[in-house]
């Protein structure tokens, strides 16, 4: 997937998405929920970037801000050469066909009063210059592509199972030949035996059509299967961004490490990694802690973490980590913490 | 676990039918299992497999109509719960059997304080005074790891996070020292790091209190982490039942085998392509006269279309104690060259 000359199709720089809090009688602006607070990454053409994290970490907000379903507070989102964050409404409308989305809940994202043909055909009506015949041909073609029987074209969403509904959602996203698709928890609402069907479909389509995915999920095992690189988010920021195999073999950020250790291996006969149980809950994004976002729960926290926000920097080829353990080799952790060298195995600088 | 101890809960041939406008739905068909003191029975299956309906039927939690518990026995402490009066059943729920539901937000009442909701069963079932109940409630909240418990009694559910709410639910279920705790997907709505906290807590509590637990989930990872024995359900029936290590090491039913292969793993070899189970789960409009998994089964035999396979032992132990499976096919039949 990572060809030598691969160009990033999507380049996100310092994306911020704040939701204002208004309180009091006069609805004064008294603060912000910092759902996304300075996120940068890029996705190469044909690549799948996995975006993982727990609920409320801002991963879905990133996906939506990327496609400008929200107006980002700050930052640049360059998709295929154009900064989506600043496009005029008319230019944005013209841009929409290149970037599409598959939503989490196939029940809620399909209009119950529209037939499958209407749902898949709506983007064609809006953006493509096709006559009735051509549109129907395209709808059938799309239904074939996602494995839906053509004879179901005039049925309504309620007549389909969860997995089939998700296929309708995918067909709609594909209608305008997009280059980039944001998949926001596309399998979270499906049963295990159906999840595999949908994931295989997404992979087939990627191979056939050269699609680029941002795959948002909290299912770390599935992300390991589908993603080429993975970004781990915590409280509005990226904690670690690494190639898939490297991350799962040896997570560098303490949060990534704890997150991976919490996943239950579906086999009691296999030796599991040492489980790290994090204490407490995620702080409120309206009032994130000073310094590193993770400092309130981090098992390896030291003084500096409570003062200075760590930047996301490259610590090994292709591996980006926002953690003082890897950047500040002089400031050793205090107290009973392990010496820093232990946490820096294999770090080149 | 205690292999020879008498079961605290013994369910035999349970059948539940729903009457709907489209006809009858046979949600639970002849489900039998038993639970011994101090053990964790994991129940796995996809939505519609009948795992929740089975547990709700035990305790008369299903509204009737449309539900109709048609047959079977549910023996708890020598009494058949299907035969006793609603009033007696009420004293069993809460006092003898605790229930933790999936979604901690919708199963707590938003207009009452958390303290009020924990104290309710204590006052009702144990006849405690308000002060006694409050003291016990504090104890319970501390037991499930909620800091500053005395003050938190006055909080409302919305003031707790998801993981904390689930802890409160567990505290309520534990209030009257039940013999059996039934947990219906208690961690499904929670994040993995919070899920890890709850799993740890339940393991600890079970050790401390020695109660038996039924843990319903669709997540095989959770099963592997917590269960002693596993019951795999499909189409309202028990497809396979085995001790947890045995089930993962030596699955017999084609459904179990397929299920184990569809889930990607977090470690080890990364599969190039996921295995899928083609097709959809069955509509249970009639009592199945054939194997409910037949249409999706890669090993189905002629016989499967005419008979519903009953459970039979795999390892020679009596049914319900060792490894048993409801299938005519067996991995031993698999010829050398057959595609696994």
UniProtKB/TrEMBL annotation, chain A:
The membrane topology noted for this protein in its Swiss-Prot or TrEMBL record is:
Peripheral membrane protein
GO cellular component annotations of the record: plasma membrane
A single GO BP annotation from the record? peptide transport
Q: Which SMART domains match?
A: AAA (SM00382)
Q: Does the keyword Nucleotide-binding apply?
A: yes
Cite the entry's keywords alphabetically: ATP-binding, Nucleotide-binding, Transport
A Pfam family this protein belongs to?
A: ABC_tran
- Which SUPFAM superfamilies does this one have? P-loop containing nucleoside triphosphate hydrolases (SSF52540)
Highest taxon of the lineage: Bacteria
Answer whether the UniProt record assigns the keyword Transmembrane helix to this protein: no
Any one GO molecular function term: ATP binding
All copies of domain ABC transporter, residue ranges:
10-260
Cellular location of this protein? Cell inner membrane
Similarity field: Belongs to the ABC transporter superfamily.
Name recorded for this polypeptide: Dipeptide ABC transporter ATP-binding protein
From TrEMBL, chain B:
Q: Name one Pfam family in it.
A: oligo_HPY
* Entry annotated with the keyword Transport: yes
**GO MF assignments:** ATP binding; ATP hydrolysis activity
Where is the protein localized?
A: Cell inner membrane
Residue ranges annotated for the ABC transporter domain, each copy included: 11-260
Tell me which SUPFAM superfamilies the record gives.
P-loop containing nucleoside triphosphate hydrolases (SSF52540)
What is one GO cellular-component annotation here?
plasma membrane
Q: How does it sit in the membrane?
A: Peripheral membrane protein
Q: Name one GO biological process term.
A: transmembrane transport
Domain of life where this protein originates? Bacteria
Keyword terms = ATP-binding, Cell membrane, Membrane, Nucleotide-binding, Transport
Q: Which family does it belong to?
A: Belongs to the ABC transporter superfamily.
Xref: NCBIfam families: oligo_HPY (TIGR01727)
Q: What is this protein's name?
A: ABC transporter ATP-binding protein
